[in-house]
Amino acid sequence: MGRTSRPANRGFLCQEGTAPGPQGQRAAAGGRCPASRPWAGLCGSVGSEVCWAAVCQIRGTRVSGRRLVGVCQVPASSGKAWTRVRVQSTDEGCSPTPGWQVSASSSCSAQCHTPLLPVPCGCPPKWGKGPGRVATRQHAVLSGGLAEAVGSPPLLPGRPCPRPGGRFRCFWAVLLLLALAVLLLAGIMHVDVGLLMPQLGDQADGPPVTNVMFLKTHKTASSTVLNILFRFAETHNLSTALPAGGRFHLGYPWLFLARYVEGVEEGGPGRRFNVLCNHLRFNPPEVQKVMPNDTFYFSILRNPVFQLESSFVYYKSYVPAFRNVASLDAFLASPWTYYNQSLGLRNAYARNSMWFDLGFDNDAPPEEGYVRARLLEVERRFQLLLIAEHFDESMVLLRRLLRWRLDDVVAFRLNSRSQHSVTSLSTAGQERAKHWCALDWRLYQHFNRTFWARLRAELSPRRLRSEVAQLRERRRELAVLCLQDSEPKNQSQITDLRLRPYQSGRADILGYNLRPGLDNQTLKMCQRMVMPELQYMAHLYTLQFPDKPPKNIAFLEA
User: Fold this and answer.
1) For residue 337, which of 117, 412, 469, 508 sits 20 to 30 Å off, Cα-Cα?
2) Residues 43, 100 share a domain
């Protein structure tokens, strides 16, 4: 038997429900199959099924009596998929003399098995060994099925079967064309691509991040972030590092120690928690003792001018530097008259308090080398620093990095003051505040820049505006659902004593009343969203340590 050469073109034509066409039926003059159609297709109806088989005769070489594997196309009305069958076929091959033809001699109705995707008309397999490959170039036997054809489109009359692997190229070509069409449409309409495909844009790259350390700085909207984290921990049944015993802070204003956390001593040195977010002064080696290695570290900063004003009002009766001065403007006009460094920790709220919360010396001179070194240290320790003045944008970015749902980061403002307890600094007072809190000012400037650079890297301007709008709209929806009058209330107006926030200094801290008549599930969700931080922390403590005495919140009993 002569040696068969490898075909240059494996495509062929096959008309559904008919006998082979002229090119499949008869060789060209001189005893050779047409070079453009080295594979012949057989089309023949067998009962209610159509059997497809293929045989290869290259340049006149004769193949006869071969066993072929064909493919049955079951009509759609039968509800079956394409299946692989074995077909007995005796053919005369492509003989040197005219009259070559291919014929089928057996039914394929009884041996259908292994559902396949639609397969085109007898597309030939690859050469070589293995399932779906031609055993030799001489023996063009379809042994083991048409693996190369799986997933190809169904036969179209008069259309050549794709080459092996062509279905993948077709798929990617179609996908590329769709992508180009979307880009073209976006360019014409000036629309962000992410807005055209929100489902693709919102898909997370993996599961939500559940190991989180939030450094809760003071008077920076951190109580609202704390509520977000507490809710997430409770919803997902995560462990939270809470103050031990009757304490409400994790050792603040002293540097954090692992032993300040409830359960660490009983659990041993290997005890780890999912969430750490209560007030503490950052001490990385001790924090790492209670948090896993893959923890996501973040914090929040606020313009130190406004942060200092809030601290002055809130800690007026607590901080020695603020007690004996009438206003913040008066304090900033002559700070050293009131500020005594020897009082140390108790005066931390009066100067560079965010710098202090990060574990640094808040009275250090703002020398360039020292400041740069500390800023680099913060960058190494924290994956993200939020900006309070851009809270909604901060939540959009945080949600993206943590791969959380929208409702996970929607929150009402907590521990905020009524407008009448907010004071305004003069222009000169604002400049003095920047100078007095020079370390905080440098910290804020630096990470305000990095925050916006990170946002620009993660989201286009249009996409950012869209996601911020979604966040705000969802907040409005929840406010209508949960809140009475959809507005915060002062302490005297809050009817549920358990939802009254702690009051401090001259600040008038606001809270919320819930709408009456909420069903149990909605009521539980809404209560979580408006629960002040001390009450929520005590609630989690009871859930996490049911055998220990509950925390006593004295002001609720007064």
Assistant:
1) 508
2) yes
